[in-house]
């Protein structure tokens, strides 16, 4: 099977040629687990194959699409632990998407390491620049390789039947044989290259999209530019320079040069457009930074992480610097550091009163310093849970100052007593400390704190206790402990705009709170006070993380999203319980026609199992807007299920509404299995005919799985 169109770009690249030949490298898991493996780029230039040098050992593979980043040198905990044994220029780390563990490697030489580092980056760049046609060719090639069990470059009918099961298709043998025979133009009894492409196209024929195409095509064969303009205006509800946009779409997505010369779009081009980012449900104009970033910090929702150091379990999980790196690289702008006294005068980070492992505070600060601004230049807030003695607090302050240097905000921006918070724009490239502080910000300017080396404050500390007798049930009780804690002036001085304070009530805060004071809640407390959830464990997949990712996927994924105007006006209090009472109240009706699904992933590992998919649409927002509706389930078809089911929602506060699409495998005897999901703000939705590109449980894409829907948002009369 021919590989992708990137093949031409690969031929002249020495690094990729070297990867195709293969290299022996050490795979490192710990100081004591260091084993040689033979690594090789497959001919498809998309798959890395590796195996032990010992005969009889199975091989492993991973796709280049799974790799999120390549880190050079000692840039992981594992490689740092063996830094004395292997030089940095031979070491590199492959970071995978989602929750898959990193792959730490040591090459035989610095040149070989560079060859793989540059080669992998080139492959990732090629992928990112791939056109829609090349992506389609790639998927077809992937399926061919999966099905061609005997690797003879052709597929017999038995291999085709196995492929259909892999693809989630429940097709009777007669129909499958008919398609196979139609595609077998050479009448050889097998499918090769173009014959398999033809078979795939017949299999993936989109009657649902063809119906829309023919509705707007005057001759049923193509969309003239005028036809396409009508479609964009009437269905996609586009208003800005439609004539120019139609021209651009033909130029970008039409594969036929003959059609381009006629300023027309064939069905293939139409399908390419609807499957692209422009045809997706998420408005591309909201993908980059489009909001005003010069308002005070408190005017933004800030992407925040709780117990950032934990990679998994809250009670006995592994604490890791990697938790911080991953959260920051996903756009998180507020990370939590739970600090306790450690051995040898060095503060440590872990989940206190639990059995989670421990990491050094200075290693966390190093990681934050290195990764804070890799994906967003806007400020990072280090939220310190301080349980340390005064002596180790001084060590903390030393590490913060020494490691972060000028990145650490040590004083107000203009050196004067402020009257309000600065903006994300003002604080670009700065790291702010959120922690307890001796006195207030005002005292820092009138010299009242100068002489005191330590201060005392009342600490209301939430302590997690584990019930020793019920460890297997992971039973946890929480109790509130009030105590006096001493605070070192050195650490206190590192706190400027984010002083941690205890929260009493909203009424108390309205009267007494200062603009630089911040209160944190557990989720249960927040629900009690606000009836909505707060910060998250970035390492925990699920509905909460989906909503967080969905909210912050807009505005350049920079970790800051501007609140709606009614939440920024201090004199006007927004009550989520009665949204109809606010100024500018305009409810909307969201109508979603769930038309079809495409190539949904298998969730059951049993070979003969085929998905019975249903789609649930959830609205998350103010209490009045919380709602869920489902389509029917389609029996035994995860490949191209068709619903044409219409769901309607009335939304009273559209500015705060999140829409979550969930696909599940229906099971009448037990809980439905999760298949995929996609979540976004209602304000980021495009109307008309749109594809929803589904994400896995851990938030990574699962191409080519998608839903095809029609969206309308209208004012409620």
In short:
The chain is an alpha+beta fold. The chain is built from 21 helices and 28 strands.
Cα-atom radius of gyration: 28 Å
Helix content range: 25-40%
Q: Unreliable runs, pLDDT <50, ≥5 residues?
A: 1-8, 458-482
Count of β-strands: 28
Strand order of the largest sheet: 4-3-2-1-7-6-5
Q: What is the terminal separation in angstroms?
A: 57 Å
Oligomeric form of this entry?
Answer: single chain
Structural class from helices and strands? alpha+beta
Strand content: 25-35%
What is the average per-residue confidence, as pLDDT, rounded to a whole number? 85
Inertia-based shape: globular
Structure description:
The chain is α+β, with helices and mostly antiparallel strands. The strands form 7 sheets. The chain has a 7-stranded antiparallel sheet. Strands 13-12-11-14-15-18-19 form a 7-stranded mixed sheet. It has a 4-stranded antiparallel sheet with strand order 24-21-28-27, with no helix packed on it. Helix 11 crosses helix 13.
SSE map:
Layout: H1 7-11, H2 14-21, E1 23-28, E2 34-41, E3 47-52, E4 59-63, E5 67-72, H3 77-81, E6 91-96, E7 103-106, H4 110-128, H5 132-147, H6 157-166, H7 173-183, H8 193-203, H9 207-216, E8 222-224, H10 225-234, H11 242-253, H12 257-261, E9 264-266, H13 267-275, E10 300-302, H14 321-329, E11 334-340, E12 348-349, E13 359-360, H15 361-371, E14 380-386, H16 390-404, E15 431-435, H17 441-446, E16 454-466, E17 476-488, H18 489-492, E18 498-500, H19 506-512, E19 517-518, H20 523-530, H21 543-552, E20 560-562, E21 588-598, E22 613-620, E23 627-630, E24 642-651, E25 658-665, E26 673-681, E27 688-695, E28 701-715
Parallel strand pairs: 11-14, 14-15, 15-18, 18-19
Antiparallel strand pairs: 1-2, 1-7, 2-3, 3-4, 5-6, 6-7, 8-9, 10-20, 11-12, 12-13, 16-17, 21-24, 21-28, 22-23, 22-25, 25-26, 27-28
């Amino acid at each position: 099977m021919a590989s992708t169109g990137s093949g031409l770009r690969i031929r002249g690249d020495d690094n990729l040629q070297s990867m195709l030949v293969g290299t022996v490298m050490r795979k490192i898991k710990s100081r004591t687990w260091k084993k040689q493996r033979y690594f090789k780029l497959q001919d498809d230039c998309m798959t890395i194959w590796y195996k032990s040098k010992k005969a009889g050992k199975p091989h492993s593979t991973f796709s280049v699409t799974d790799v999120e980043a390549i880190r050079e040198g000692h840039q992981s905990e594992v490689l740092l632990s063996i830094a004395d044994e292997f030089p940095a220029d031979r070491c590199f780390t492959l970071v995978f998407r989602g929750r898959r563990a990193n792959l730490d490697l040591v090459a035989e030489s610095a040149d070989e390491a560079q060859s793989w580092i540059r080669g992998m980056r080139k492959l990732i760049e090629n992928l990112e620049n791939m056109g829609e046609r090349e992506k389609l060719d790639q998927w077809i090639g992937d399926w061919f390789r999966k099905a061609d069990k005997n690797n003879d470059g052709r597929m017999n009918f038995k291999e085709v039947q196995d492929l259909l099961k892999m693809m989630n298709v429940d097709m009777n043998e007669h129909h499958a044989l008919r398609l196979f025979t139609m595609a077998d133009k050479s009448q050889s009894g097998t499918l090769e290259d173009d014959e398999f492409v033809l078979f795939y196209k017949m299999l993936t024929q989109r009657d649902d999209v063809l119906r829309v195409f023919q509705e707007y095509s005057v001759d049923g064969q193509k969309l003239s530019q005028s036809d396409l303009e009508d479609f964009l205006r009437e269905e996609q509800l586009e208003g800005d320079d439609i004539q120019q946009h139609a021209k651009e779409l033909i130029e970008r997505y039409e594969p036929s040069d003959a059609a381009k010369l006629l300023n027309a779009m064939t069905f293939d081009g139409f399908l390419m457009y609807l499957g692209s980012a422009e045809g997706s449900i998420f408005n591309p104009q909201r993908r980059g930074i489009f909001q005003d970033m010069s308002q005070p910090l408190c005017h933004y929702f800030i992407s925040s992480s709780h117990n950032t150091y934990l990679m998994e379990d809250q009670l006995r999980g592994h604490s890791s610097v990697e938790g911080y790196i991953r959260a920051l690289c996903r756009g998180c702008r507020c990370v939590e550091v739970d600090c306790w006294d450690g051995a040898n005068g060095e503060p440590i980070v872990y989940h206190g009163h639990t059995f989670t492992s421990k990491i050094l505070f200075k290693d966390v600060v190093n990681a934050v310093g290195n990764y804070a601004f890799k994906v967003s230049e806007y400020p990072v807030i280090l939220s310190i849970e301080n349980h340390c003695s005064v002596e180790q607090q001084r060590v903390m302050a030393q590490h913060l100052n020494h490691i972060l240097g000028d990145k650490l905000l040590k004083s107000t921006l203009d050196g004067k007593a402020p009257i309000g918070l600065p903006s994300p724009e003002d604080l670009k490239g700065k790291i702010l400390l959120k922690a307890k502080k001796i006195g207030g910000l005002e005292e820092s300017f009138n010299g009242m704190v100068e002489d005191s080396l330590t201060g005392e404050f009342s600490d209301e500390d939430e302590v997690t206790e584990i019930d020793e007798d019920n460890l297997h049930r992971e039973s946890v009780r929480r109790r509130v402990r009030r105590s006096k804690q001493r605070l070192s002036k050195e650490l206190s001085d590192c706190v400027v705009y984010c002083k941690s304070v205890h929260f009493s009530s909203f009424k108390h805060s309205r009267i007494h709170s200062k603009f630089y004071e911040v209160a944190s809640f557990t989720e249960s407390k927040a629900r009690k006070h606000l009836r909505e959830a707060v910060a998250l464990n970035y390492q925990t997949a699920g509905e909460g993380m989906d909503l967080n990712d969905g909210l912050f996927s807009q505005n350049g994924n920079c970790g800051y999203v501007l609140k709606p105007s009614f939440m920024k006006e201090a004199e006007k209090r927004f009550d989520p319980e009665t949204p109809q009472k606010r100024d500018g109240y305009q409810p909307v009706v969201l109508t979603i026609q769930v038309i079809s699904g495409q190539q949904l992933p298998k969730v059951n590992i049993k070979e003969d199992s085929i998905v019975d998919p249903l789609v649930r649409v959830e609205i998350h927002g103010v209490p009045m807007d919380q709602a869920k509706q489902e389509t029917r389930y389609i029996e035994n078809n995860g490949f191209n299920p068709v619903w044409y089911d219409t769901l309607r929602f009335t939304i009273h506060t559209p500015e705060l509404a999140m829409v979550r699409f969930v696909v599940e495998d229906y099971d009448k005897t037990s809980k439905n299995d999760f298949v995929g999901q996609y979540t976004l703000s209602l304000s980021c939705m495009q109307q008309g005919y749109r594809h929803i590109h589904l994400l896995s449980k851990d938030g990574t894409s699962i191409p080519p799985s998608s839903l095809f829907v029609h969206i309308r948002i209208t004012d409620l009369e």
